[in-house]
Amino acid sequence: MKLLLDTHVLLWAAAGSGLSANAVGLISDPDNELHFSAASIWEIAIKASLGRPEFALDAGVFRRELLESGYEEVSIAGSHAVSGLPDLHRDPFDRMLIAQAMVEGITLLTADRAVLAYPGPVRSAL
Description:
- This protein is α/β, with parallel strands linked by helices.
- It is built from seven helices and five strands.
């Protein structure tokens, strides 16, 4: 299965804490392909610059470490912006991740209950 990890799930996986046993199993399964979004790196960089403690890391270093660990990056494309998402959630980063999952045929792994309300390839990390 192809999994796109949302920003918080990426951070929790890197920290080795905060994830359910189900999410740990999905992430550690060697048969699953792990992906991260360029939008998550952008979100981390912005929120780190705003002094948000849960994002206190260097986004560039984090991106490099993800790539070195075998994660694949999903770039942002125009097709993601015109995916016709229902208006269930206002966070632009989360909306981009949902659109990317839908357009690219990747399952989004998230702990955000608002994101879990979307139809399509969304799976709970709770």
